[in-house]
């Protein structure tokens, strides 16, 4: 009896924890300027992931320096910060089973020349310095990035009507 209860509890926790993984996705200034906001959001929406937060803002260089702090020693860093702060962006939080890894798959490789057709970068851009969208590379960096761009109140808790049609249980 206890074994069955433990199994149910384990299964419940595992399922809940998995489905509530979060990633930080951001449409970069070129994605906004080129009118690709709807198209990029649609990919994540149609896949079945849940939108948790989204805003539209023109980010400061200071914010972008923090966002890309890990890359600060790279030769392309100044150009990256300049490009990313050159216009408004659309930061978002998406949630779902395996969303960090699958989010990167939907985006495609960092360099659009290596991105498979069908991916966002593979279909919609050409050069690494204009690759139209950002996606967290791990759960740890997702949490860091979500906290950098959003506060707790901006993360919306809701249950999509289609939930049981997307997940098995
Ligand atoms: P990703 O955005 O796929 O996580 P990253 O974190 O290595 O890739 O780099 C962040 C961004 O920096 C990337 O989206 C585009 C830019 N970048 C990366 N490598 C570059 C390079 N060799 N030249 C110019 N820009 C580069
Ligand atoms: Mg990265």
Describe this structure in words.
With 169 residues, the chain is an alpha+beta fold. It has helices at residues 2-19, 29-33, 37-47, 61-67, 77-84, 99-107, 120-124, 139-149, 163-166, and strands at 22-27, 50-54, 90-95, 133-135. It has a four-stranded antiparallel β-sheet. The two termini are 22 Å apart. Bound molecules: 2'-deoxyadenosine-5'-diphosphate and magnesium ion. 2'-deoxyadenosine-5'-diphosphate is lined by residues 71, 76, 80, 110, 128-129, 131, 134, 137.
Per-chain topology:
Blueprint lengths: L1 H18 L2 E6 L1 H5 L3 H11 L2 E5 L6 H7 L9 H8 L5 E6 L3 H9 L12 H5 L8 E3 L3 H11 L13 H4 L3
Antiparallel strand pairs: 1-3, 1-4, 2-3
The protein binds 2'-deoxyadenosine-5'-diphosphate and magnesium ion (MG).
Features:
four-stranded antiparallel beta sheet; 169 residues; 46% helix; alpha+beta; binds 2'-deoxyadenosine-5'-diphosphate; binds magnesium ion
């Amino acid at each position: 009896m206890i074994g069955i209860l433990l199994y149910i509890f384990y299964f419940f926790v595992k399922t809940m924890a998995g489905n509530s993984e979060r990633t930080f996705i951001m449409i970069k200034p070129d994605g906004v300027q080129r009118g690709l906001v709807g198209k990029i959001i649609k990919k994540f929406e149609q896949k079945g992931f849940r939108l948790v937060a989204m805003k539209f803002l023109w980010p400061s260089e200071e914010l972008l320096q923090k966002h890309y702090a890990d890359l600060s020693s790279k030769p392309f860093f100044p150009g990256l910060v300049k490009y990313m702060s050159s216009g408004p962006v659309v930061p978002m939080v998406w949630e779902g089973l395996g969303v960090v890894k699958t989010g990167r798959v939907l985006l495609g490789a960092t360099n659009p020349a290596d991105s498979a057709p069908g991916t966002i970068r593979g279909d919609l851009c050409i050069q690494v310095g204009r690759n139209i969208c950002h996606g967290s590379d791990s759960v740890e960096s997702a949490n860091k990035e979500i906290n950098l761009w959003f506060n707790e109140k901006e993360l919306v808790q809701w249950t999509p009507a289609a939930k049981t049609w997307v997940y098995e249980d």
